[in-house]
Amino acid sequence: MLKKLIFLCLLVAFCLLNWEASAQHAENFRRINFRAENAPDSVSNHLISLHQYLVRNTKNDTEKIRAFYIWIIHHITYEDRSELIFNPHILFYMGTQNCSSPVCVLSVKKAVCEGYSNLFQSLCQLSGFESYTIGGYVKQNNILYDRATHAWNVVKVNGKWCFFDPTWASAAIQQKHKNTDAINQLFMVSPEKFIEDHLPLIPLWQFMERPVPYSVFNAGKESIDEFLGQTTSRGFYHFTDSLRVFNRLAAAQQHLKTGEQIAKTNPSNKFNRAIEYYRFAHMTLNYQKTRANKSIDTLLEAKKYIQKSILIFQKQSDVASQLMKIKANEDLQKIQDCILSSSEKSNN
Predict the structure, then answer these.
(1) What residue intervals traverse the membrane (predicted)?
(2) Residues paired with 137 in a beta bridge
(3) For residue 18, what pLDDT is reported?
(4) H or E stretch including 160?
């Protein structure tokens, strides 16, 4: 009886301590939330000024990231324009008023998911956090999209990888009734929880030792939980090593690597594979040395993958694919011109 009483007392004490810690945590966030929500217009148009304002008076890394998150979801409005124009920052077609760069987002205070995520990443990086913008599949109301239609963030906080979706959180803000639970549920989420409705294009960006396959994600939460709960004799996926190798690659090679991984993990997603092949070829043509100094082998590799992207785009009937086919054909012509010019030089 005495042992039970001692156990109950310890349990109550533990619960009280946790409650006090949670209450203090909530109080800190109320302070951070209020300051971020009420940031003056004078700091809201410039990335550095905004960052300096948001980190001022924060006490730890979590509070800094909370300030970035709260400011974005309260001050940036989601808006997707239907008229498409090629965006050189992401090498893809977006609405004419849609922004992807942080400078543009701060200027117009409107964005789609790429804009939300890129701004959040930039603020995190200004504070020295390792952070990334991730594209992938999402599931809403049990509806799965077979293309990567969304972007979100992952940040290393206090040695742990945490996920954020400022776009969905902003949508919760813009609803008639502010959904506080949704806002908090999309802030600093563990990889195992976030994977329930967000699946990155390639396994690397899950930040898990047992990446969830596309087929398991597609099957729903119960299948995901069952998969994660299984014990296996197979080796674990060393995402830390893979991330280090990936970050050492040139930007063009990162896109090629992503395209190849998409082909392995979800062969049916030809569209995003074609996008990555196009980005590899475009960046190889335009961003590595001058066109005149590129080797024939480099140009031939770019030609090979841009032709692969064109073959995929022309088999798709949607507007985005048809526009990307036109853009890819333009770059193919430039690559062929460079190959011809290089061949003539080598023959002289």
Answers:
(1) none
(2) 199
(3) 39
(4) strand 160-164
d(CA 199, CA 85): 27
pLDDT over threshold 70, residue 305: yes
Per-residue CA distances from 38 to 11, 53, 63, 75 (Å): 40, 11, 16, 10
Query: So what's the pLDDT on residue 147?
Result: 78
59: left (phi over 0), alpha (psi -120 to 50) or beta: alpha
* Calpha distance 260→276 (Å, rounded): 9
Separation between Cα atoms, residue 217 and residue 215, nearest integer Å? 5
- 291-303 average pLDDT score: 84
Summarize pLDDT for 18-31 with one digit per residue, the tens. Answer: 334 334 445 668 99
- Measured between alpha carbons, how far is 312 from 277 in angstroms, rounded to an integer? 10
First-to-last C-alpha distance (Å) of the chain: 99
In order of their start, the domains of the chain are: 14-205 (3.10.620)
Q: Of 297, 327, 296, 334, which Cα lies nearest the Cα of 310?
A: 327
Amino acid at 57: N
203, 217 in Cβ contact below 8 A?
Answer: no
Alpha carbon distance 152, 174 (integer Å): 18
The structure tokens listed for 234 are 């197979």
| More confident of the two residues 114 and 178 | 114
Residue type, 124: C
Angle of helix 319-347 relative to helix 296-313, nearest 10 degrees, comes to 160
CB contact set of 136 (below 8 Å; sequence gap of 6+): 148, 150, 151, 152, 198, 199, 200, 201, 205
Q: Which pLDDT belongs to residue 145?
A: 66
**Helix H or strand E segment including 110:** strand 110-111
Nearest C-alpha neighbor of 92 from the set 48, 137, 151, 36: 151
pTM equals 0.85
Which residue type occupies 46?
H
Cα dihedral: 184, 237, 217, 262 (round 10): 110
The owner of tokens 């969304």 is 150
